[in-house]
């Protein structure tokens, strides 16, 4: 295909353009190959790939990594090059590239399940979904997939040096999913459909009691229970809000509710 393209350009272009096209064709066909007579051609390719990767030259880096994967089956760099291919797709960041990155990291885990960098592959697999997570108001398919891959990491690689970073990413992904469900509960609350609000808000806490934004869940759950004339059930949620959060936009209102509920004052007018 490259040769055909070069011939077509020669027929149509000026002499200067012909020289450029010839150079491009030569570059495209030979840039990912080591110099003739190289003592360690796979190392040469790998080092060049890392240089290009560091410069965010995704396509060029991928060509070097691919050369190792496809043509050096016994190379000590082959597994790392496989990861490198995935990294180049991840770096591109498009939806299509993310799918290709997922394929590379999954294949690595299938081909090299006991490799010392298998944890890295699992981490990056989670990142391919994490980077595609949508806002809380939108579909959360990618968020759920990221959570599943990060949880798989924690189960499989409890001693990994990447564990803390994975936990932070997992917390962020869970918070995104929790916020999505909280917003549904808040919509029900504002629509004054309190049974629906109570069910949805309780489900957030049941699924993830460590949700970072649970102060808002506590507050609106307590308020919904008050609206349903269930003050005794509401009180513990306000108390949890006060006990667990030193700072919250709901803190003063929660303290006021606790005082009202404990004094037996009417709370429906609040």
Would you write up a description of this structure?
The chain has 13 helices and no strands. It has 270 residues and is mainly alpha-helical. It has a domain of 30 residues. The longest helix has 28 residues.
Described by strand count, sense and barrel closure, the largest sheet is: none
Mean pLDDT: 89
Low-confidence runs of at least 5 consecutive residues: 1-30
Helix-strand pattern = HHHHHHHHHHHHH
**Category from helices, strands and their pairing:** mainly alpha
* Structural Rg: 28 Å
Strand content of the residues, in percent?
Answer: under 5%
Count of DSSP H/I helices: 13
List strands and helices in order, with pairings:
Layout: H1 2-12, H2 15-30, H3 41-54, H4 58-71, H5 78-92, H6 95-111, H7 118-130, H8 141-156, H9 163-190, H10 194-207, H11 214-227, H12 231-244, H13 251-263
Helix pairs in contact: 1-2, 3-4, 3-5, 4-5, 5-6, 5-7, 6-7, 7-8, 8-9, 9-10, 9-11, 10-11, 11-12, 12-13
Q: Can you summarize this structure?
A:
The chain has 13 helices and no strands. The protein has helices spanning 2-12, 15-30, 41-54, 58-71, 78-92, 95-111, 118-130, 141-156, 163-190, 194-207, 214-227, 231-244, 251-263.
Which characteristics define this entry?
270 residues; mainly alpha; elongated; disordered N terminus
């Amino acid at each position: 295909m490259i040769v055909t393209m070069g011939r077509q350009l020669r027929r149509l272009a000026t002499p200067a353009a012909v020289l450029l096209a010839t150079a491009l064709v030569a570059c495209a066909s030979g840039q990912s190959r080591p110099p003739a007579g190289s003592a360690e051609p796979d190392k040469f390719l790998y080092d060049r790939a890392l240089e290009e990767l560091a410069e965010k030259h995704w396509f060029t880096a991928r060509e070097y990594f691919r050369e190792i994967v496809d043509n050096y089956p016994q190379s000590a760099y082959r597994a790392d090059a496989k990861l490198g291919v995935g990294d180049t797709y991840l770096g591109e960041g498009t939806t299509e590239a993310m799918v290709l990155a997922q394929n590379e990291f999954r294949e690595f885990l299938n081909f090299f399940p006991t490799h010392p960098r298998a944890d890295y592959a699992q981490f990056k697999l989670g990142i391919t979904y994490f980077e595609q997570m949508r806002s809380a108001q939108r579909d959360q398919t990618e968020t759920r997939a990221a959570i599943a891959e990060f949880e798989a990491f924690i189960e499989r690689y409890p001693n990994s040096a990447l564990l803390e970073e994975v936990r932070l990413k997992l917390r962020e992904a869970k918070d995104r999913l929790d916020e999505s469900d909280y917003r549904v509960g808040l919509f029900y609350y504002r629509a004054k459909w309190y049974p629906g609000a109570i069910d949805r808000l309780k489900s957030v806490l049941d699924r993830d009691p460590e949700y970072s934004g649970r102060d808002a869940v506590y507050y609106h759950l307590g308020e919904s229970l008050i609206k349903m004339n269930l003050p005794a059930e509401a009180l513990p949620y306000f108390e949890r809000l006060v006990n667990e959060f030193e700072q919250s936009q709901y803190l003063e209102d929660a303290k006021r509710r606790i005082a009202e509920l404990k004094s037996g004052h009417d709370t429906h007018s609040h």
